[in-house]
Amino acid sequence: MLTTRTDLAMESFEDTDAGAFPGVQVSQWDNDGISITEVLITDNEAAHQLGKPKGSYLTLECPLLRERDPDARLAMAALLAEELARLLPEGDARAPVMVVGLGNRAITPDALGPGVVDRTLATRHILNAPFARGGLRSVCAVAPGVLGITGIESMELIEALAASIRPRAILCVDSLAARDARRIGSTIQLTDTGIQPGAGVGNHRKPLTRQSVGTPVISVGMPTVIYAATLARDAFAWLSTQSGDDDPHDEALSDMERTLLSADIGEMIVTPREIDSIVQDAAGIIASGINRALQPELSDAEIAAMMN
Fold this sequence. Notes:
Elements: E1 24-31, E2 34-41, H1 44-50, E3 55-61, H2 70-87, E4 97-101, H3 112-118, E5 139-142, H4 147-150, H5 154-165, E6 169-178, E7 187-191, H6 210-213, E8 217-227, H7 228-242, H8 250-262, E9 269-270, H9 275-294, H10 300-307
Parallel strand pairs: 4-5, 4-6, 6-8
Antiparallel strand pairs: 1-2, 2-3, 3-7, 7-8, 8-9
Helix pairs in contact: 2-9, 3-9
């Protein structure tokens, strides 16, 4: 059986019978034009089969985001803020929340995390300033870059910062890989299981989890890429269906991937040509949701003004 290559928990079993995973609970509902899917993985065996750690995964989908619909963007930011606020631990109100933007600024599909950090309202350094308004929560933000540029693993920097700052929670943002190209730029996933930096582009690094840093880790991500092998397999399956062939041809597809898509340059990933605007829009939506969740005393108008 071929492995589904995706960072979205909801896609991990779409091509199979969800009932085959007794340790998985799936709920779906709609809210203001946004489709919501919650996946709870409670069993170690199910987690192993799906390739996802145990925990809660919430996926928000709105195809209108790809059309840059302003109402859809506002609705997504508001719902994201609501769900993030629900996941954030209470903890010490004086302890900061550390927002971490993972990724490489120089590669557009991987620049979502740094883009969100650029628009996050960092307040930790001004809380005691005379001009600071009351009710602000302590927030700090960092984009640690990537090993190939800094020579330092992202996890090394995050662990050092967490030990010094002692945040009540770490909120990570990263680019993801999807199984369905239609979800690129239109889907946001939240999870309380942490994150593995570089997973979206197949560059696996040490995971960032509560166990590794000693504080709750919430991750937010949007798909910006899809594996070329996934597209090839979908095309092959479509052609087979059109010809009345129901054989999945797993072995032939695996041979094709090894011969044509990996070759000497490694696995290829694909991204839409309008990825610049997709990432820019996504960074604004996610940053707005984070700012609303972390600064509940500020109005939407105040947050929008401070972000621009």
